[in-house]
Specification:
about 450 residues, alpha/beta, Rossmann fold, Glutamyl-tRNA Synthetase, domain 3, three-stranded parallel beta sheet, three-stranded antiparallel beta sheet, about 10% strand, elongated, binds glutamic acid
């Protein structure tokens, strides 16, 4: 059996760390098994799906290195879903319902008040043809529910182990809305069957859907036609809180464009959190694929901590050779040569941090010297150590200045930083000073823009 997985995002928004983790686990599993990956765009919700989101999803996955072997869109396949709909109606497994949202709400409230679970009472199943005609004559349009067996659905979950759902405790799911639009449930099964998907790997929030879908698989494809299923625990923030509210700011696009993270830092973190492996960075997806194992996935939520992402990213950047980054440095207008790169590299969290270093070193920097610090700065220029500046020069220099002027702490260090960089904050001055060099340092201390 050739493994085939699918990642099925709805293009109703941008990819974020939560749904990319699902994509990643699918790809890692498939690649480790020599299997195939299908990228399916679940765009049955025509109103909320956009081409822009679809393009962004493909661009994000490509940037992350998550490739696919096949792709299609659900919106091109409505004829197939219509056929499946007809088959289910024919089997008596899909039935029209006419309740409005308000009516359903009221029913649920009454059930709750009676201490009963708010499961749909299947009232629509006992409507006669006359009654249905009457409702339709009133202008009501039916939505369609799948008739669950009422039995116990069992499967061996790839992550959660032996699992089951009592379908008697679940409402018959709505597959088609009153406006005729499909929820993802039925199209997904139709496509998974036709594409010969062997494994469905997705978040734990889909467990109840899975039970209904297993019954739909069997109704359309026969017994045993449901793929293997794996439901991963969801992501939470570093504080253990649900990430859902913050996911907007954790889009892959922002991690790339705004924060400047490396794709392998993102992939490594998402592959390792919530597993029994140590959270560490890998430089190749293939290595993550070789290390992937469902048995390592924990059933407790995985913590996503942006600080950890920074740590992994820094580790990647610190190991980058000049030849690897030269073009990117040039693109950032920050190619100061190999010596420059090797000196600043240990200070970077993300590659683009290099820009600040390059600018402070190359100049022009307009020194910021307060009137009351002008003499002090001039004195500092005089006391600058002779000869080639090194990483030890800063300590020697500031000690000498301390003795000579009696200044210490902030009043000693801040005017030097402001004069040399024009800014209140920035990289370690000890490392910056030798790169700026004695000539420029002296000029800046005298207030000259260089
Ligand atoms: N489009 C669905 C979602 O994004 C797909 C779920 C799935 O079957 O993987 O939730």
């Amino acid at each position: 059996m050739t493994v085939k997985v699918r990642f099925a995002p709805s293009p109703t928004g941008k990819l974020h760390v939560g749904n990319v983790r699902t994509a990643l686990m699918n790809v890692l599993f498939a690649r480790g098994q020599g299997g195939q990956v299908l990228l399916r765009i679940d765009d049955t919700d025509i109103e909320r799906s956009t081409l822009e989101n679809e393009d962004a999803i493909r661009a994000d996955l490509t940037w992350l290195g998550l490739s696919w072997d096949e792709t299609f869109k659900q919106s091109e396949r409505f004829d197939k879903y219509e056929i499946a709909k007809a088959q289910l109606i024919e089997k008596g497994l899909l039935y029209p319902c006419y309740e409005t949202e308000d009516e359903l709400d009221r029913k649920r409230k009454i059930q709750r008040a009676q201490g009963k679970p708010p499961v749909y009472d299947r009232a629509a199943l006992s409507l006669t043809d006359d009654e249905k005609d009457k409702l339709e004559a009133e202008g009501r349009k039916p939505h369609w529910r799948f008739k669950l067996s009422g039995g116990r659905i069992e499967w061996t979950d790839l992550v959660r182990g032996p699992s089951h759902i009592e379908t008697s405790s679940v409402s018959d799911p709505i597959l088609i809305r009153a406006d005729g639009s499909y929820l993802y449930t039925l199209p997904s099964v139709v496509d998974d069957l036709e594409s010969n998907v062997t494994h469905i790997i997705r978040g734990e929030d889909h467990v109840t859907n899975s039970a209904a879908q297993i019954e739909i698989f069997e109704a359309l494809g026969g017994k045993g036609s449901a793929p293997a299923m794996g439901h991963m625990a969801l992501l939470v923030g570093a504080d253990g809180d649900k990430l859902s509210k913050r996911l907007g700011s954790l889009s892959i696009e922002d991690l790339r464009e705004i924060d400047g993270f490396e794709p392998m830092a993102v992939c490594s973190l998402l592959a390792k959190i919530g597993t029994s492996d140590a959270v560490d960075v890998r430089s190749e997806l293939q290595q993550l694929a070789e290390e992937f194992d469902f048995g390592k996935l924990s059933r407790t939520p995985a913590r996503f901590d942006p600080e950890e992402l920074k740590r992994l990213n820094a580790k990647l950047v610190h190991a980058m050779d000049y030849a690897d980054v030269r073009d990117r440095l040039a693109g950032l207008d920050a190619d100061g040569g190999e010596a420059f790169w090797l000196t600043v590299r240990p200070n970077l969290t993300v590659l683009k941090d290099v820009v600040e270093w390059a600018r402070l070193i190359e100049g022009p920097v307009t020194p910021a010297i307060a009137d009351e610090d002008a003499d002090f700065a001039a004195q500092a220029a005089e006391l600058l150590p002779e000869g080639e500046l090194t990483v030890d020069s800063w300590g020697a220099w500031t000690n000498a200045l301390k003795e000579a002027t009696g200044r210490k702490g902030k009043t000693l260090f801040l005017p030097l930083r402001m004069a040399l960089t024009g800014q209140q904050r920035g990289p370690e001055m000890g490392e910056l000073l030798p790169l700026i060099g004695a000539e420029k340092a002296k000029a800046r201390l005298k207030g000259v823009t260089v």
